[in-house]
Design brief:
Order of helices and strands: HEHEEEEEEEEHEEHEEEHHHHHHHHHHHH
Number of strands: 14
Bound molecules: zinc ion, manganese (II) ion
Structural class: alpha+beta
C-alpha cells in the first residue's frame, strides 16, 4: 500500500518538532575536571564525580555556562536571571548515577527563534523556527555491544562500557512545534539543523561534527488531515547524525504515518531509530512522559544566576549571524539565489570567502570550488576541505589565469597537481613545464594545418558562416594541447579566413 510523498502532502499537514543535542568543546567535563578529548582509551578520562562514586560532589563548569548563554543569545533567546539544575531519573548502564543532571522547569535560555531560507517553487522563502528552550545537561557514557551481527544489544555476547563521554557538557536546544511547512517540512528541518550548526561553529562553542556525534538531532513529526486543528500523534526519530539523514528521516516518517492513517490505524507515540542503509526507521521504546523521570531540583548544585552586565558583554561580542553573512556575501559577490544555495549546500562558503579574501575574483573562486574541485572531491568521496588544495592555491591559480600564464584548461592540470600533492601552483607549472602558447607564429602554423585538414569547414567560415569556426578553434586547441589562449586563436583564425569580428 505504498503512498507517494506527493499524495501524503496533498492530504496531510506535517507538524515538526526538533531537539538538538550539542556537545560543547570545553576542555573539561560539565561537573568535574576530567578531559573531554575525543577518542581516548576507554575509561581513561574518568574520576569519582563522573563515575558517580558515593560522596563525590559536582561543580559547574563556568565555561560551559558561558557557551550556553552565547548559544541562547545567538538564537535570540531570553536569558534567565536565575535557573536551576534538576535530576532526570532513569536507569541505563551507560549512566553511572542513574540520573542525569539536566534542567527542567527552569532552563537557562528560553523563547528564541531561528530563521531559515528554503528554495521553494515560488523562489527563496523564509521560515521562522521558534525555539522553546536551551538548557544544559551532561552526556552519558557509551555502550559497545560485542558479538552479534548488528552491533546492537540483541544477539550480542556481552557489552562493554566506556565512561569517557559521561559528563561531557551537552546543550539541548528544543523548538516549539513548527507548523506550516507543508511539503517542505523535510527541507526546513534540514535547513534548521544546518543553520544551528553554522551558528554554533561561528560561536566556536562546539566541534559540531555530526558524524562524531557532537551534534545530534531528534526529529519529531506528526501529521494532521489538511485543515484540521487537532495535532496528530508524533513519533521521535533519535540521534540522526547527518543533515541528509534529517531530511530522509522526516520524509520517511511522514510516509509511514500517512500509510497508517490511511489504513485507519493509529500512529504510536514512540522513539524510533533511523537506519542509514534503508532510509527507514525502526521502532525503539515507547516514549516516557515527563512524570516518569521524577524530575526534582539537584540538591548538590547552587542555582545559576549570571550577572546581567556579563550577559550584555557576551551579547556585544557575538559574531555575525550566518544568515546575515550569507546576505552580505550574496550582495558583495553579486551571486544569483541558485548559485548561493548551491554553495551553501556544497558547504563551500567559508572556503570561497577565504579565497576571495586572498584576492581572487568571487566568480572565479566560486566556479573553481563548486566546479572542478567539487568534482574531484566527489570522485574521491571526501569533502573539498579534506583535499590538499587550499584557498591560497586557488587564489594563485586564478591570478595565473588572469595574467594569461594559464588557460582554464591548463589551470585544471595545475589543480590536479596540487590535489596530488605535487607542490604549489607555481612549482607545478615549473615542474610540468606548463605554459600558454602565445607565440602567434606557432598558433598560425596550427591554424593553417587545421584549415588544410578541414577545407570544407574553412570555406564555410570564409563564406560568412561564423559559427562553423567553433570546430576549427577546437581542433587548434587540441593541436596545441590546450596550451593556447582560445580568444587569441579565434581572433587569428577569423583574420586568416578573411572575417573580422
Ligand atoms: Zn570526571
Ligand atoms: Mn537531553
Amino acid at each position: 500500500m505504498a503512498i507517494s510523498y506527493d499524495d501524503v502532502v496533498a492530504k496531510y499537514d506535517p507538524v515538526l518538532g526538533l531537539e538538538v543535542h550539542v556537545e560543547l568543546n570545553t576542555e573539561s567535563k560539565m561537573f568535574c575536571s576530567c578531559s573531554t578529548v575525543f577518542g581516548g582509551e576507554p575509561n581513561t578520562q574518568t574520576c569519582p564525580v563522573c563515575l558517580a562514586l558515593p560522596g563525590a560532589l559536582p561543580v559547574v563548569n563556568a565555561r560551559a555556562i558561558e557557551s550556553t548563554i552565547k548559544i541562547g543569545l545567538a538564537l535570540n533567546c531570553q536569558i534567565a536571571p536565575y535557573s536551576r539544575f534538576a535530576r532526570k531519573n532513569y536507569f541505563y548502564p551507560d549512566m553511572p548515577k542513574n540520573f542525569q543532571i539536566s534542567q527542567y522547569d527552569e532552563p537557562i535560555c528560553f523563547d528564541g527563534y531561528v530563521d531559515v531560507e528554503i528554495d521553494t517553487d515560488e523562489g527563496l522563502k523564509e521560515f521562522r523556527i521558534e525555539v522553546e528552550r536551551v538548557h544544559m545537561e551532561e552526556d552519558t557514557g557509551k555502550s559497545l555491544h560485542v558479538g552479534g551481527a548488528t552491533g546492537r544489544i540483541h544477539g550480542a555476547d556481552y557489552s562493554l562500557l566506556d565512561y569517557n563521554r559521561a559528563g561531557i557538557p551537552l546543550v539541548e536546544i528544543v523548538t516549539k512545534i513548527v507548523p506550516g511547512t507543508g511539503k517542505y517540512a523535510p527541507e526546513v528541518a534540514r535547513a534548521y539543523v544546518a543553520e544551528l550548526r553554522d551558528i554554533l561553529r561561528g560561536l566556536g562553542v562546539s566541534d559540531v561534527k555530526m558524524e562524531q556525534g557532537s551534534l545530534r538531532c531528534d526529529a519529531n513529526v506528526s501529521l494532521k488531515p489538511m485543515g484540521s486543528d487537532l495535532l496528530g500523534t508524533r513519533s521521535e526519530t533519535k540521534n540522526v547524525n547527518s543533515l541528509r539523514s534529517v531530511e530522509r528521516a522526516i520524509r520517511g516518517e511522514m510516509i509511514r504515518h500517512a500509510e497508517l492513517l490511511d489504513a485507519g490505524a493509529k500512529v504510536k507515540q514512540e522513539t524510533r531509530h533511523f537506519q542509514e542503509d534503508t532510509g527507514l526507521t525502526r521502532s525503539g521504546r515507547s516514549k516516557e512522559q515527563a512524570e516518569d523521570y521524577r524530575y526534582f531540583p539537584e540538591p548538590d548544585l547552587v542555582p545559576v544566576a549570571p550577572d546581567a552586565a556579563w550577559i550584555e558583554e557576551l551579547r556585544k561580542a557575538l559574531p555575525e549571524r550566518p544568515s546575515l553573512r550569507r546576505k552580505r556575501l550574496k550582495q558583495e559577490w553579486n551571486v544569483p539565489d541558485k548559485e548561493m544555495a548551491a554553495m551553501v549546500n556544497a558547504d563551500v562558503l567559508d572556503i570561497v570567502e577565504a579565497t576571495v579574501l586572498l584576492g581572487a575574483d568571487p566568480t572565479k573562486a566560486r566556479s573553481w570550488w563548486l566546479g572542478e574541485i567539487s568534482r574531484i572531491a566527489n570522485d574521491k568521496e571526501v569533502s573539498v576541505a579534506e583535499l590538499a588544495i587550499t584557498p591560497a592555491d586557488v587564489a594563485e591559480i586564478v591570478a595565473l589565469v588572469n595574467k594569461g600564464e594559464l588557460t582554464d584548461k591548463l589551470a585544471r592540470q595545475v589543480v590536479e597537481g596540487v590535489v596530488a600533492g605535487e607542490g604549489t601552483p607555481a612549482e607545478i607549472v615549473a615542474k610540468r613545464g606548463i605554459k600558454v602558447v602565445n607565440d602567434d607564429g606557432a598558433l598560425m602554423a596550427a591554424i593553417e594545418k587545421v584549415c588544410s585538414e578541414q577545407p570544407e569547414t574553412a570555406q564555410k567560415v570564409r563564406d560568412g558562416h561564423i559559427p562553423a569556426a567553433g570546430a576549427l578553434i577546437g581542433a587548434v586547441m587540441k593541436e596545441t594541447k590546450g596550451q593556447a589562449d582560445a580568444a587569441r586563436v579565434r581572433e587569428l583564425l577569423l583574420g586568416h579566413l578573411g572575417q573580422t569580428n
